[in-house]
Amino acid sequence: MASLKPVRGTQDVLPSESRQLRRVERIAFDVAELYGYGEITTPIFEFTEVFSRTLGDTSDIVTKEMYSFEDRGGDSITLRPEGTAGVARAVMSGGLQQDLPLKYFYRGPMFRYERPQKGRRRQFNQVGVELIGVAQPLADIEVIALANQFLGQLGVGDKVTLELNTLGDGESRAAYRDLLVDYLQGRQDELSGDSRERLQRNPLRILDSKDDGDRGVIENAPVLTDCLNDTSRAFFDSVREGLEKLGVAHEINNRLVRGLDYYCHTAFEFTTDELGAQGTVLAGGRYDGLFQQMGGRQTPGTGWAAGVERLALLTGEADTAKRPVAVVPVGKDAEAAALDLTQNLRRAGIAVDLGYSGNMSKRMKRADKVNARWAVLLGDDELARGAATLRDMDSGAQSEVSLDQVAEHLTGAGE
Ligand code: ATP
Ligand code: MG
Q: pTM value?
């Protein structure tokens, strides 16, 4: 039955991978908390408009990648492809703009209809932060510093590069737009169909194209940095100086644009060359135009999102579970006593694996399989003496311990 397969681009996450993903999320959350960001959880689906209005109807996400459907009430609903639009919607519908600035962390699944490959799935997880209501460069510096500390604590700090650019303010972008359209029109024949279509509606987006032909044209295109007005230049300089002061290494990449309409000024990505084509692990920027575009009042914002699976791939290390203690009863009376002992140990905070059935050798095999650090052997003879045998599964050393001291021994014995 075909329907017993998971849908293309989705997957079942088994315990060892779950631990890796949860580790990434936990570290992101812990670092965000250090910076004063609290967790916000928005629904995983919204009215389609929340995304189509904000992401713009020429973005890849809106034109090709959204999972949209009509629900039973006839509303058009979309599974969220990203987190920022939903957070902004929550801020507006909850009247939270009374209390600016707002500092939020989020995590959870996102959905995009893309061609699945390593590091690219149709359901994937992101962690992200949003700092809403601060127009100053200090906000950009803070969210980048947060990202940098998060990646450092995750252990991938030396595998990533921070690339930084500015998109300037509206005036700078308008000046650049004219320059860019002039240039692109001259080389129209070399552009992909998609890009030709965007030439009038959203030429900046062409810079984000992954098409090889487009890339050739883009290589020699004028850069936005040349069109910055004084305000935009000063903003960018402040961000760079702030990062330098904090020792956050970065490279200027004046080809870096964010694919979404509401970005301005700061744009950044943490990239790696260890994941093949899917090299961006964390991306963000300033989105001062977002709230207005959604029909709200102008509210500045800045933030980023990171791909949890990509980061887990990059760390490469398994977040191994604590090695348990295996309780191994031998004999009928011992079996009954084992359940008692097991529960006592668990109540004392010790992870215990109790085999459900089988003889001694089968249960010892199981103890190996779960990578037990210790085994507690419980035989009828020992039980009669009120004792059990502790076996160090690494060295094989054994000693007899009185039953009521097993927990104490195991907690004292360390890992
Ligand atoms: P890409 O250029 O790889 O398509 P993007 O610009 O679409 O990325 P963003 O919308 O900025 O990505 O999302 C932030 C991060 O989320 C990305 O840097 C990446 O780590 C992760 N991400 C995006 N799309 C996927 C996906 N389909 N599968 C897994 N992770 C993803
Ligand atoms: Mg994408």
A: 0.91
